[in-house]
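In this section we walk through a basic example: taking a raw amino acid sequence and producing a predicted 3D structure, encoded as discrete structure tokens. The instruction is simple. Fold the sequence below.
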Amino acid sequence: MAALTGVAALVVGTLPAVAVTGTVPPRAPGQVVPAPDTDTPALVQGIREPAPAKGGAADAARAYLDGKRERYRISDAERDLVPGAVTASQGRETVRLQQRHRGVPVLGGQYVVRMEKQDGRRVVTGTSGKYFTGLTTGTTAEVDGELAVERAVSRVLDDLDGRRLAKAPREGEEEESPLRGTDHGLVVVPKGSGVLTRHVTVHGTDPANGAPVLQEVYVDAHAGYPVLQYSGIKTFGAPDQGAARPPARDAVPAEPAGPPVSAGEEQGSGVRLDGTTVGLGVVHDDERGLYLLRDDDRIPDDEYTDRFLATYDARDLMVGDVSGQWPPGLAEFTSSSKEFGAEVTESGGVDAHWAAARVYDYYRDRHGRNSLDGHGMSINSLVGVTQYGQPYVNAFWDGQKMVYGGGDEEYLPLSAALDVVGHEMTHGVIEHSANLVYAGQSGAMNEAIADYFGNAIEADVYGLPADDPDSGLLGERLCRTKSPRDCAVRDLGDGRTTTGSFLGLDFLNDNGGVHHNATIFGGALWDAREGLGAGLADRIVYRALTEYLTPLDGFTEGRAAVLAAAKDLGASAHDLKTLRRAFTAHGIVPGWELALGADSEPLLDRINTTGTGLGAGGGWWTAAKSNEDGSEPYSVWAGRADGKSQPRLMSPNDGRYHVNPATDGKTVVWQAYGPGGVEVLARPLAGGPVKKLWSGRSGGSVTDVDGDVVAFSFANVGGRSAVAYLSLKDPANVVTFGGGTYRRAYAPSVSGGKVFFRVWQRVALTRAVYEWRMTVVDVATGESTVVQQYPNTVSLGPTAVNDTHLFWLLSGTAEETDAKTAVRRAALDGSDAVDLSPETGPDALYAYDMTVSEDSATVLAYDPDGGLTNEATPKLHQFASAGVPGAPGTYKGRVSCNRGAQTHPAAVAGSQAVWLDSTTGTTDVVTRRRPAGRCG
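The resulting token sequence is shown next.
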């Protein structure tokens, strides 16, 4: 996906078009850079124009824009731009203005005006950002907050345990939903003419593994369908690195005041994990007679609030207990003397406290910044969290504080690395300045800038020159046995990360590649530091961050911002050439997205949809598609899989979202989301009226059809998953399974009059004992048969069925610690169960989705041990569905060697499959008729 350089990109994980579609504004005396899809310029620099003498900085900035309407095309700046942050430094003022459309906030709509004081008057020196001029959407909602929250929670739960390999809910948590939602009100998502949405934050605990969850979900305010979803997680490592999933931010409460302390700050000491003794700011608590790991002197107090830098002992807490909230009873590390002992050292507390002070000092001394928010906020670090008693090998910023995992047998506590601490604290600086949206390219730039300053701070403290081969390593000091280079999570100096290695990912995979693609931009910045010197480079990047970048900027805008900041700082022609060379060497040049290619055949490009899969069968495919800019509700289209016919529209254009289609080559079925509920609809491919089959309050992600039988998933209130099937001829006779507190059903598939799905249910009435039951229903007789049973501890994935076999994914039956996912096949009665792909061994896969034809089983898998490489992203593998496991030819190879995410596979016939592919930076429906084989 590209880079969130437009919100169409943000919504569907695709790259925006690079052509300028807006009217180019009149040229100013300085440089004017136009923006795609808006008439307001992306950047104006090299000007010195007087601002009206009107009120404060924000009023002057808006009055200036109003006076330059011919250039900026902002019809009423005082009405449509709301003052945000105003920062002042050395006679400069930077004003951030938030766009409103008819009074409703616009996601990512932010415009920046830069001014200087000259002879007591303000002079505008430049502007930049995104103001969307094409918005015409109405702002009256048809969906209330309650329904929006319900739909958002159901979507996130479905993502967690519907199509993906999932465990059952944890014991004791089955009676209540593990997730909650908070409605933040209306927001316009600026796709095309705009989409009115309700912004819902979904937070809580993953029902399978206890990991905290935070998802920002934007629900269409007319139809109630989630059109945009991304995670708020800001971690050091990418998802699936380390021993646990990364944490998520929850709603952020007020900052804790800390316990009262009756004496001032003193100087203490402690030993870091590398053995060095360092000074620590500490406070003596006279009431308890103990020293606290609290620096009460470094951050200046204001007249209302005491400000401090404190480090807390969180070793008895799980990551879910601290993410986005302040757990009761949490206290700073203590010592009976000023010298903090071995226990605090081993926990990582000494390192966290010492490193946080170094980062604070860097931003204060180098950039004149008072703490992370620029206004002296307290800095709190929590050290030593675990995940259900298991090691947590990651670190994160949750909008309020830093949280560090306690490490494991190989990794030290995450606070042991100064670059990790600098990285997480820089996320706080970014959040309080450009606030780059943590998804796609803007999210990758968020990570890149956090990497850059984390490494810059560490290099300065340790005296590493930028041309040192190890200066670009991140996290290299975390390991107990590995060498620094083997230990490092990323390397800004590797010189190999370019836009040619960009990975197009959807938002369920590393938030659209925020870690995978970070080093493209971060590497360019690090090369610039080597060429320009630390001092100048750091000032340039900091100014670009705080005075130029806005939330939805991508790599190209980032390059422009850095170059503009360099000019502001008086960089020489040679320095500017060095900067341009650094970006060009990493492939960051205008139009770089157009160079991405694929080995698959496109069937439907730029579908501009999110959260909906596709179907195939009988030589046809079907998918949901929006319009070119993604602003219209989704429609269902179908076409021949040989590409020899134009796609045909199957669904009515009625304002609802038509999603999750399936076809058997004769009929297309799908789900339609509207404000009154969800309906399952059907229409023959040969034409004819649309037929309503079922209606309910919430839908699910799975729909399937074969002949007269339709099966689908849906959710009852609280996200309790259920499966239903019915007859096309007699849809009123609906049979359902699950949907209750103690019995839930997932992932239906249908073929040959058989419906196959998995059920999780309580099997002991007097105690909480649950198990999985793989269930087959013979539609003709109504007979339900449990063909396989598994304990509650096993993880199960989607099901598939053809005329001869049942297929499913499972994990957790093997005793080996490195077990992966088995691709299991059995006869229709459950007998003769074998594994097409084993759960253990060198050829095992981490699989989480599957589709089958009579000939082939196509499996979606990824490699969590692949680091930040192409192999760690979702890829398709194919097996002979009736083959003998382990025999030659059973494994057919990779379906495609495309880079980037390959998701939502659907079998057509034989070896042909269709899928959603993000390689080219757009989300496209693509196909291959035979596997590509082994990919180098």
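Looking at the output, two observations stand out. The longest strand covers residues 104-118. The chain has five domains: 23-130, 145-231, 255-430, 438-596, 803-936. In the next section we compare this with other chains.
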